[in-house]
Specification:
Layout: E1 3-12, E2 26-35, E3 38-39, E4 44-49, E5 60-62, E6 64-66, E7 69-71, E8 74-77, E9 81-86, E10 93-97, E11 105-110, E12 115-120, E13 124-129, E14 137-142, E15 147-150, E16 156-163, E17 165-172, E18 181-185, E19 190-200
Parallel strand pairs: 5-9, 8-14
Antiparallel strand pairs: 1-2, 1-19, 2-3, 2-16, 4-15, 4-17, 6-7, 9-12, 10-11, 13-14, 17-18
């Protein structure tokens, strides 16, 4: 089995508000995800509190179909969230997810300015494709956490308002394995040394 190496660099910055004296001070946590060939963009990153099974709230998101692309390429939502897929192009588009271990769906083919929606109940990384334009690829990451983000063009992610405590840090990307890294959030600066992480061709979380 072919395995790749991923370097995951996490620089954690924890900034407590002035005068906060309790253990549940709100902090900011940020980091950078790197792969063998450079930074990793469009990865879903989330924090899962250790020992906390509190249900997360559903939300809404939007992925446009614009200039023959899904824009943005990835959104991160919680279970039960609804994602809207408008067509902003002057051509027909189709939105579907093939399944591969998760529930597949097909929203059909529709013109501008119509929009269709789908509610994601399952946790996982869902690939969005278009039957009309096979070069179009997008993703919906459904994660069980209120603390979630995507990496930008510099491979960086930021969480704001994180209570102090113990967490597992997860990174979902179609090419790499999830590091599932333990993180302690406290009112101070913490740096996690670069790590070589494996990635394989199994393509987890329902991606093709």
């Amino acid at each position: 089995m072919i395995r790749l190496a991923m370097t995951f660099t996490l620089a954690v910055c924890l900034a407590c508000s002035r005068g906060a004296a309790t253990a549940w001070a709100q902090s900011t946590l940020d980091g950078v995800v790197r792969g063998r060939d450079g930074v990793v963009t469009d990865a879903a990153v989330f924090l899962a509190p250790v020992g906390d099974s509190t249900a997360v709230r559903p939300t809404t998101a939007r992925i446009d179909q614009l200039e023959l692309m899904f824009v943005p390429r990835i959104v991160v939502v919680t279970p039960g969230s609804t994602v809207e897929f408008p067509n902003s192009d002057a051509v027909l588009h189709n939105v579907f997810h093939p399944g591969n271990g998760t529930r597949g769906f097909d929203l059909g083919t529709y013109p501008r300015p119509e929009a269709r929606t789908f509610t994601f109940q399952e946790v996982g990384l869902f690939v969005m494709l278009c039957h009309v334009h096979p070069e179009m690829v997008g993703f919906v990451a459904v994660v069980p956490s209120e603390h979630r983000a995507t990496t930008n063009e510099d491979g960086r992610f930021v969480f704001a308002g994180v209570p102090a405590g113990e967490y597992r840090l997860h990174v979902w990307h179609r090419r790499f394995a999830d590091p599932d890294m333990p993180i302690t959030v406290r009112g101070k600066r913490t740096t996690v040394s670069p790590m070589l992480l494996p990635a394989d061709t199994k393509r987890p979380h329902g991606t093709p």
